[in-house]
């Protein structure tokens, strides 16, 4: 039976990706779209400055955009995807949770809260059970699950594959696409013929969220993985697709071939939006590249390549589509996991 879903912040850059990914979804049926006061009351077609590379589905274009309050959303909606600015999400998500909604959120508020599952279905599906803790502590009838930051989710599946060799220390440098900053985020004058060598708050997110995702859960709390993670984040003039260079120190000996095999064999999950193989490893050291490889697995697969030995471990490059696997696709996959695990 179809699960009725809604999108909070549906008119924005990530909201538009949600609409694209939910069109013809086998389980989810879009029943509500919300945005700010200035969009409320308009049809979606009037309110959204549509910038995704497929047309607005006709049935969505004619839907009425509502205010972002629980009262404005029908009780028939079982699951909400959230792509609000994090300051707005911090204020309104708790209202929806109090009202009993299950929320799969892409916004960065509360990702590191001890009682909020920060989840990638292929990596730490068991962390979803934090929902019980969250309900006890906060008295919510609903449930809140978060997906990680787009740069974090690009790297973490590869680190999870390396963890069998004893992940000790990670250094990562990112080359991030402009779409990560949103449509109005960086101006053309800033980014063309240029690179911007810092992204505010991004390094800390990579350094903390990765350790929560790889951490162990004992039924009550998540113990952060004890690897040291250091990140340096940079913006470059690609449109979509974050490329990252990772240097990982390992406790055990592992050749580049061992590492490539561990990445290739890392198990996927059987959910509608999941790629068949989680990590594609290239033999060609000049791959992955953003323009050529971001759409692998409908934008949900992670790519890796140029795996080479270092004194303490390995170095390699990895890539993911930042607004699909790194944002809306990640939330949809978490929604599918919530259904699969019986939370909805
Ligand atoms: N852009 C990206 O690639 C990525 C973004 N993210 C995160 O996802 C979230 C959304 O980002 P993005 O889509 O780029 O943002 P946008 O600014 O494009 O969209 C924001 C959405 O939130 C709505 N909104 C804004 N203010 C309010 C309010 N006060 N009350 C209710 N609704 C409001 C907007 O409605 P309206 O149109 O009416 O203003 C719009 O629908 C952010 O937390 C961001 O950090 C994460 C990964 C990647
Ligand atoms: N900061 C990311 C995008 C983003 O919005 O991340 P977060 O989901 O952590 O807010 C980027 O610039 O590419």
UniProtKB/TrEMBL annotation:
InterPro entries: ASADH-related (IPR051823), Asp_semi-ald_DH_pep-lack (IPR005676), NAD(P)-bd_dom_sf (IPR036291), Semialdehyde_DH_NAD-bd (IPR000534), Semialdhyde_DH_dimer_dom (IPR012280). Residues 4-131 form the Semialdehyde dehydrogenase NAD-binding domain. Pfam families: Semialdhyde_dh, Semialdhyde_dhC. GO terms for biological process: methionine biosynthetic process; threonine biosynthetic process. SUPFAM superfamilies: Glyceraldehyde-3-phosphate dehydrogenase-like, C-terminal domain (SSF55347), NAD(P)-binding Rossmann-fold domains (SSF51735). The keyword Oxidoreductase applies. The keyword NADP applies. The active site is at residues 150, 242. Gene3D superfamilies: Dihydrodipicolinate Reductase, domain 2 (3.30.360.10), NAD(P)-binding Rossmann-like Domain (3.40.50.720). Its EC number is 1.2.1.11. Keywords: NADP, Oxidoreductase. One of its GO terms (molecular function) is NADP binding. It is an enzyme of class 1 (oxidoreductase). PANTHER family: ASPARTATE-SEMIALDEHYDE DEHYDROGENASE (PTHR46718:SF1). Belongs to the aspartate-semialdehyde dehydrogenase family. This is Aspartate-semialdehyde dehydrogenase.
């Amino acid at each position: 039976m179809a699960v009725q879903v809604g999108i909070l912040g549906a008119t924005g850059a990530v909201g538009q990706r949600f609409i694209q990914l939910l069109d013809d979804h086998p389980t989810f049926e879009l029943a509500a779209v919300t945005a700010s006061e200035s969009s409320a009351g308009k049809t979606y077609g009037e309110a959204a400055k549509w910038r995704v590379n497929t047309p607005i589905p006709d049935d969505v274009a004619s839907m009425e955009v509502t205010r972002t309050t629980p009262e404005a959303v029908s009780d028939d909606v079982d699951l909400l995807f959230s792509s609000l600015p994090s300051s707005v999400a911090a204020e309104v998500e708790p209202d929806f949770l109090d009202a009993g909604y299950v929320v799969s959120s892409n916004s960065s508020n509360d990702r590191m809260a001890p009682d909020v599952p920060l989840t990638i279905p292929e990596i730490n599906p068991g962390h979803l059970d934090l929902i019980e803790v969250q309900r006890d502590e906060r008295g919510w009838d609903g449930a809140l699950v978060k997906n990680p930051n787009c740069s974090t989710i690009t790297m973490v599946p590869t680190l999870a594959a390396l963890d069998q060799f004893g992940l000790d220390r990670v250094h990562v440098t990112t080359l991030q696409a402009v779409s990560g900053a949103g449509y109005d985020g960086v101006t053309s004058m800033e980014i063309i013929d240029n690179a911007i060598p810092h992204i505010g708050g991004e390094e800390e997110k990579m350094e903390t969220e990765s350790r929560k995702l790889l951490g162990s859960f004992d039924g009550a709390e998540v113990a952060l993985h004890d690897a040291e993670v250091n990140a340096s984040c940079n913006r470059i003039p690609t449109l979509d697709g974050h490329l990252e260079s990772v240097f990982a120190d390992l406790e055990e000996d592992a050749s580049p071939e061992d590492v490539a095999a561990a990445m290739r064999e890392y198990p996927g999950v059987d959910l509608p939006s999941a790629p068949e193989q989680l990590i594609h490893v290239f033999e060609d050291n000049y791959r992955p590249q953003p323009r050529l490889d971001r759409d692998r697995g409908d934008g949900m697969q992670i790519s890796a390549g140029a795996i080479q030995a270092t004194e303490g471990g390995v170095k390699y490059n990895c890539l993911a589509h930042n607004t699909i696997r790194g944002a809306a696709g990640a939330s949809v996959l978490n929604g599918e996991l919530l259904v699969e695990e019986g939370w909805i």
